[in-house]
Amino acid sequence: MDVRKTVVVVEDVDVSRSALQWCLSNLLRYSDSLTLLHVFSATKSMSKRKARMLRLQGYQLALSFKKICNFNFFNTNIEMIVTVGDREGRKIVAMVRDIGASAFVVGLHHQSFLYK
């Protein structure tokens, strides 16, 4: 059986957690690869300290999502990526392509990049 790569967008909203739960229940198989991707916005005028804080918060959020995965799928290869990007989702799309994902899961909400 071939290993499938799945990317789940990590955001601090309930629909993102629901999307992860759906992915774990319906899409993920034993030994598949799962990437938890969090992209945060940082402007050039933003201080380095503020950007570092946003990155740290992104990792903490990704770790909370990883705990959900470890509880349900302890033998799954889980990778976390936290990076800077734009609000239009170009970075997310580029990362999904670079990873070579066969599935992309995102929780849809009012401020989602998919609406832009």
Please describe what this structure looks like.
- This protein is an alpha/beta fold and 116 residues long.
- It has a single domain, classed as Rossmann fold.
- It has three helices and four strands, in the order βαβαβαβ.
- The radius of gyration is 14 Å and the shape is globular.
- The mean pLDDT is 85.
Tell me the name of the CATH homologous superfamily: HUPs
What is the CATH level 1 assignment?
Alpha Beta
Report Rg.
14 Å
Shape: globular
Number of helices: 3
From the coordinates shown, what is the CATH architecture?
A: 3-Layer(aba) Sandwich
Binned strand content? 15-25%
Indicate the percent of residues in helices: 40-55%
Element-by-element helix/strand order: EHEHEHE
CATH fold topology: Rossmann fold
User: What oligomeric state best describes the polypeptide chains here?
Assistant: single chain
Give unreliable regions as ranges: none
Number of E strands: 4
Largest beta sheet: what is the strand line-up? 3-2-1-4
| Tally of discrete structural domains | 1
Q: Termini separation (Å)?
A: 37 Å
The biggest beta sheet reads: 4 strands, parallel
Secondary-structure class: alpha/beta
Whole-number mean pLDDT: 85
Pfam families: Usp
Protein name: BED zinc finger,hAT family dimerization domain
InterPro entries: Rossmann-like_a/b/a_fold, UspA
Domain UspA: 4-114
